[in-house]
Amino acid sequence: MEISVTRDVFRLAEVFTISRGSRTEAKVLTVHVVDGAHRGRGECVPYARYGESLESVEAQIAGLPGDVTREGLAGMLPPGAARNAVDCALWDLEARRAGRRVWELAGLAAPGPEVTAFTLSLAAPEEMEAAARRNAHRPVLKIKLGTPDDMARLEAVRRGAPNPVIIVDANEGWSAEVYADLAPHLLRLGVALVEQPLPAGEDEALRGMERPVPVCADESCHDRASLPALRGKYDVVNIKLDKTGGLTEALALREAAVAEGYGVMVGCMVGSSLAMAPATLVAQGAAFTDLDGPLLLAEDRDHALTFDDAGVHPPTAALWG
């Protein structure tokens, strides 16, 4: 089997800002695995927050043997972007060899569309209000916050979009004091979920803290090994394939999290439809789905995912799986 990696760049429809910075394009790695007449693909987004770069992830993938299998992959690469792209490419290859869909091979029910959040990036309150008004028809809005001055932004978004469900993502940007001050206002403004209010290394303060709105572990939750440290601090886990290291671990994490009583959110980095495709399988029936990456792009893959009033639809075989 031959494994290769290409770099792809997708322009964003507009500047995307979170508490850690801004970007105008999505830089991704595409893994291709070829075995005779069959080719599988997977995509990952290296993330500097986790010590990853395009170069470091390429090097991890280049070190893999040509006979790597999904079963053996977890022993060769840690959870993260490199393992994700290879794992998803191997699933795709296996499906094409078998002439079946990935969900059949995984023993899952045939997937359907899932309503997804649409993300508003961090900006001045008046800009976020205008963005919320433009997207007020969407059922779920996710707003990027993470500064000490977020109350005005939150109020502005709710003015602009009175009806949608709102998810707040602080991206580790608050202190315990800021979160405690904001929490009752989140409830008042109808926020349904708060993602990662405190830095992952400082989230012990959440233990025993009143949580009037469910709190979701994002940066604090990567794979099943993360779960023991989350008890008493979080109510929901955000499963992202670039954190788990692929579909294989994402499905296992979902099962383990549900068994331990956590709600499930399925999220994404800013990537193309190829990155979202396997995540649509994990998102089936999830409490929250946040797979809007392609909606933030000015350009996408061929055979891109379909987004409509029903949500994000599973991929066609021409795209993945």
Description:
The chain is an alpha/beta fold and 321 residues long. 30% of the residues lie in helices and 23% in strands. It has an eight-stranded parallel sheet. Strand 4, helix 5 and strand 5 form a beta-alpha-beta unit. Helix 1 crosses helix 3. The mean pLDDT is 95.
Number of strands: 13
* Number of H- or I-type helical stretches: 10
Low-confidence stretches: none
Main sheet characteristics: 8 strands, parallel
Helix content: 25-40%
Strand fraction equals: 15-25%
Q: What's the helix-strand series?
A: EEEHHHHEHEHEHEEEHHEHEEE
Task: Kindly provide the radius of gyration, computed on alpha-carbon positions and rounded to a whole number of angstroms.
Answer: 19 Å
- For the largest sheet, list the strands in their spatial order: 4-5-6-7-8-9-10-11
Principal-axis shape equals: globular
Measured between the Cα atoms of the first and last residue, the distance is 18 Å
Secondary-structure-based class equals: alpha/beta
Arithmetic mean of pLDDT: 95
